[in-house]
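Sample intake — CubicO group peptidase (Beta-lactamase class C family)
Collected from: Actinoplanes lutulentus
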Amino acid sequence: MRVGSRSPAESLGSLSGSAPGTGNQLITSRVSRAYRERLTPSQRLSVFSGGTNREAGFANWGKDWTMDDASARGLDRRRLIGWGGVAAAGAVAPLVSPGIGQAGPASPGPSARERIPPDARPGGAYDRNVARLAAEDKFAGVVLLSHRGRTILSRSYGMADEERRTRHHEGTAFSLSSAGKPFHAVAVLQLAQQGRVRLADPIGEYLTGFPADIADRVTVHHVLSGTSGLNTPELDVRRIFRSRQEVRDHCARWARQARLVGIPGTPTTAHAGAETAIPALIVEAVTGMTYWDYVEENIFRRSGMTGSAFYTRPRWLTDRDIAHPYMTVAGGRRVDAVRNLELGSSLPYMPGWNPGRAFIDAPGDGGFATAPDLVRFARGLGDGTLLDRPWADVLTAAKTPVGQASFGAYGIPIEIVGGQWVYQRAGGNPGVGANWSIYPDTGWVGVILSNRDDIPLIAMMGQESQAITGVAPGNGNGG
């Protein structure tokens, strides 16, 4: 499956090739005058021609890494949908030691961190539990455990498309929902690393059309850390979108309807949708590319995530390697959301929602990925492919305590479990359950992807963590 491949009918295309009155003009018309005046001539050329600046420190551009080589190549509910990052600044949680997916220095014998825990092995407690859930019709999808780039456990259960009898496999791409939100944080930090964005700048330096109190007081850091103090109007979840351009225009207007209801920089557990949209709009303003194209080129392709993209609804309907979302509707039935746009979820925390109504995921959110590709994303964060080490540490810096041993970072909840860091991002939507976890101190990555909304995702996340760390969910104080 080629990243970002679309039929002409599906694609709006990179904005550098759009027709007059769309494309670059759409984006640059929303770029603030202050930002334009600050650009150097070469940066100005890059932004307004739709190009990208690839110079600043990306020595690993285009690095091709495979996990297990050929095998990978072919291929509480509030916690799920809530915002993962809160607050200002704090300690830096090292992203990788000695490296996500990288072998450490040789030692005389296997240390506790080099051994494969029995519960994480094929046939171990975690494997048996997932198999039991699948046998009881409580799980369908893919789980994967990787240790230093080597697949330890990979299991696939159930159907990606029941109508065509297409089964899940390791290369099935799943909708990520909120589990894709960290992509916008990585994108902004790439631009910060290049000197094209400053985290302390108010968003009015880059975007126009916001009220003065937001444009002048809410900074890039605030929206990335979930401390903007913004409130956004409710979305019309019953609207059916017909094109990429319609989705993008709606998102841009909706973000500018945000209102300042709190004090910027103040920690909160609330999540404003504008905090997802605004970073994506900044990426577009600075690069002259759509958010989707920027992430596909500078995160997915750079990491070797060949099965991941921001797929459109037509592609969702026709590609056998993309899992269809089976959502719960009235009466407890499961239906294919993409083939039943007139139906909506009956779940109390997202009534009436149907992810198939979005022609493409809104800028700053979502996307599709395979389980091996999320391991590649984790490696790209740890080995300098996506961000230089200091900037990767900025991504995962512990901002503000939100629990006894848990903290908010830039879109990624982080926690100390059994004396080691765990970075975890989950996403939930009707017919969607997704989570990826990075254990940087020991080189583990865990992935859970499902096309159902009635799976025990939180319990599965805890069982995965226990298999790797040996610490039962809810026990201990971080070690």
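Post-analysis note: The chain has two domains: 16-53+182-293, 70-180+305-469.
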